[in-house]
Amino acid sequence: MSAPVILVTGTDTEVGKTVTTAAVAAALAAQGMRIAVVKPVQTGLAPGEPGDVDEVARLAGTEGVTTHEFTRLRDPLAPDAAARLAGTSIPTVAEHAERVLEIADRDDVDTVIVEGAGGLLVHLDGGGATLADLAIHLRDNGVRAGFVLVVAPRLGTLNVTALTAEALRHRGLDLIGYVVGSYPDEPGLAERTNLDDLPNAAGAQPLGRLPERAAQLDPNTFRNNASKWVHL
């Protein structure tokens, strides 16, 4: 039987998807699970520069956690735009899904975590397919797949959280829950009240929240606290 797949998406870019991915990986690895973290498309980096999977490995550690980056593009744009600007073609989302399936079928993997690029409906290939389409491909191939939605605590988050959750429901995709990707040490009125209102906006349970600047912590401290920050 294939390992289940957790897809990490965000309400926007720069909401804390990578640090949340690292925290989820660290928390599951602390339970003795063997985790494979996949970044189908990495943009905004030249060859050889450390990317999101390198940050996950740094924070979550490599004991019980392996990482995989499929495609890299130099310009900091949506993958389809970055590929178009570079004058190159990139694998289709269906091809990415097949590679994820291969990893999920491995005997040494208990859970696969797939980190998207930007929000749920960002185009990951030249045909306009998205992370949602990748999840549908997995589901149609018998893999149990669900989303963790990373949200910001700031003003405006309720609307984009509700829109993303609605898009998932419309496609029949499972929203496991949401994580606040970076919660300030001194929250203002909007941040405080949004904690009360986000469950209704998401229509799903809160899975936790990460403190602001969590990625700046010593990796051992990060790993020791990951299970306190996120709960799966």
From TrEMBL:
Record InterPro entries: DTB_synth_BioD, P-loop_NTPase
Active site: 39
Name of the encoding gene: bioD
Family in the record: Belongs to the dethiobiotin synthetase family.
Cross-referenced PANTHER family: DETHIOBIOTIN SYNTHETASE
Record's protein name: ATP-dependent dethiobiotin synthetase BioD
Keywords: ATP-binding, Biotin biosynthesis, Cytoplasm, Ligase, Magnesium, Metal-binding, Nucleotide-binding
Entry's localization field: Cytoplasm
Cofactor requirements of the protein: Mg(2+)
Positions contributing to substrate binding: 43
Residues holding ATP: 14-19, 52, 115-118, 181-182, 212
